[in-house]
């Protein structure tokens, strides 16, 4: 599946965006379906740290192992996410557009392990991109207005 980038402008100062983004407890407010986040090893949030994220998508339970690969906040936060069918990389960039406006760019690439997952990636590539964009929109709503998806857990 081809790498893609999604982005959104958030009407808050970059330091406030980073403060909200960097708080693990806030993940539940903007990541639909997140059931749990468990730190596994390393210094939390730092390069090399590993965590397990569990999502529920309909009746499907998805477990991801996150490895932080780069932490250069307020500019970048990157990670890899591994699951049974493959892995993906996320490069998150936070750009100060003005003292009260921040652009969040998220670049994602996938590596599927088997033919079935490669086929799904090809057929449903738009769904992967849309899920990523949904997270960005949810974060914007949470950051700007306090709107949370937590009730939907």
Count structural domains: 1
Task: Look at the structure and give the CATH class.
Answer: Alpha Beta
Mean pLDDT: 92
- Any idea of the CATH topology? Alpha-D-Glucose-1,6-Bisphosphate, Chain A, domain 4
| DSSP strand tally | 7
The outline comes out as globular
Order of helices and strands: EHHEEEEEEHH
Count up the helices.
4
Any idea what the CATH architecture is?
Answer: 2-Layer Sandwich
Which range best describes the helical content: under 10%, 10-25%, 25-40%, 40-55%, 55-70% or over 70%? 25-40%
User: Within the largest sheet, what's the order of strands?
Assistant: 1-7-6-5-4-3-2
Query: Which blocks of ≥5 consecutive residues have pLDDT under 50?
Result: none
Computed structural class: alpha+beta
In short:
With 153 residues, the protein is of the alpha+beta class. The protein has helices spanning 14-21, 27-30, 115-123, 125-145, and strands at 4-10, 34-41, 50-57, 60-72, 76-83, 86-98, 101-112. It has one domain: Alpha-D-Glucose-1,6-Bisphosphate, Chain A, domain 4.
